[in-house]
Write a structure and sequence with these properties.
The chain is α/β, with parallel strands linked by helices. The protein is 42% helix and 12% strand. Helix 2 (68-84) runs parallel beside helix 12 and helix 11 (265-274) packs across helix 12 (283-314). The N and C termini lie far apart (50 Å).
């Protein structure tokens, strides 16, 4: 059942209209500097994130794993991440934890030896018997630099096969973060995270995963029966818009990934100006890979990074740190 669900998620994400609502970035304006007083070619996009150097403040977020088609997707995208010097995450590793024969669909180190690589498990699994042992196994399986514990209550409650017991997860996430030797990222999935929730987490970083991009409620509406279809569409726009979530969580002194509907380099610039340290993307990467292979993704990233560099130039920001706070 799980592998069929994974295949469904990939197919629906590529073929169907699964984006809904507003990220809030359309209401954000950056400060235009008519005389930037810098050389465009000198702009530096390099950052340090969780102890690793990224050439650009971008992470290709976890998409898939555990099914035959996932191996090529993960290896192609990891190789691209290596070429660009950006981060890369795999999809949920639960399938390979339960069946080690599937681990190879996640492994990418042989094609991407230097990337910032993020392992991935659902936080909900901490209420289903998982603990520090499984988290360590996810890290070891792919020689990862960090572990994302993804948080997706909307997705789980709409999904016909979903796990719905989200009780006491903050305490369990914090416990894993204390015990694990590698950084833990609390990664929200499509519905955002509020300041009130984020301040209770004791993790190494937060990935806001705000609303306005991919709607997992909408994805599940394409899979379910008549009732699920209707409920999935009702909650398609549920959550905190990405721009708002970044603004709230950036009040905390915690490394921050801005994700959820990031589609252009200008979106990325606005996310960083609001307080994100870097941005994450999944759907536009998957779709470019599906339509144009590795070349399609590389062309997308090249344009994306050029747009980000232009936004930095027009705000007089010589490096990523200088872009923060440059809002009208």
């Amino acid at each position: 059942m799980i592998d069929k669900r994974k295949e469904d998620h990939l197919r629906i994400s590529i073929e169907k209209d699964v984006e809904f609502g507003s990220t809030g970035f359309e209401d954000i304006r950056l400060v235009h500097k008519a005389l930037p007083e810098l050389n465009f070619d000198d702009i530096d996009l390099e950052i340090r994130f969780l102890g690793k150097i990224l050439s650009y403040p971008v992470i290709i977020e976890g998409i898939t794993g555990g099914i035959p088609s996932a191996r090529k997707i993960n290896r192609d995208l990891a190789a691209i991440a290596e070429r660009f010097g950006i981060g890369f995450g795999v999809g949920s590793q639960r399938m390979a934890i339960e069946d080690p024969r599937l681990a190879d669909t996640y492994r990418v180190r042989d094609v991407a030896s230097d990337i910032f690589l993020i392992a991935n498990l659902g936080a909900i699994q901490l209420n289903c018997g998982y603990g520090i042992e499984e988290c360590e196994l996810a890290i070891e399986m792919i020689d990862a630099d960090a572990l994302a514990l993804h948080i997706n209550p909307l997705h789980e409650v709409i999904q016909p096969e979903g796990n719905r017991n989200f009780s006491n997860l903050i305490e369990k996430i914090n416990s894993i973060s204390r015990e694990l030797k590698k950084p833990v990222i609390a990664k929200c999935v499509g519905s955002g995270i509020s300041y009130e929730t984020a301040k209770k987490l004791r993790v190494s970083a937060i990935d806001v995963g705000g609303s306005g991009g991919t709607s997992w409620s909408l994805i599940e509406s394409y899979r379910g029966d008549k009732k699920t279809k209707k409920i999935g569409k009702t909650f398609a726009g549920w959550g905190i818009p990405t721009a708002e979530s970044i603004r709230e969580v950036s009040k905390l002194e915690v490394p921050l990934i801005g994700s959820g509907g990031i589609r252009t380099g200008l979106d990325a610039a606005k996310a960083i100006a609001l307080g994100a340290d870097c941005v994450g993307m999944a759907l536009p990467i998957l779709r470019r890979w599906s339509s144009g292979g590795k070349r399609g993704v590389e062309e997308f990233l090249d344009q994306f990074l050029t747009e980000l560099r232009i936004a930095m130039f027009l705000t007089g920001s010589e490096n990523v740190g200088e872009l923060k706070g440059k809002l009208r």
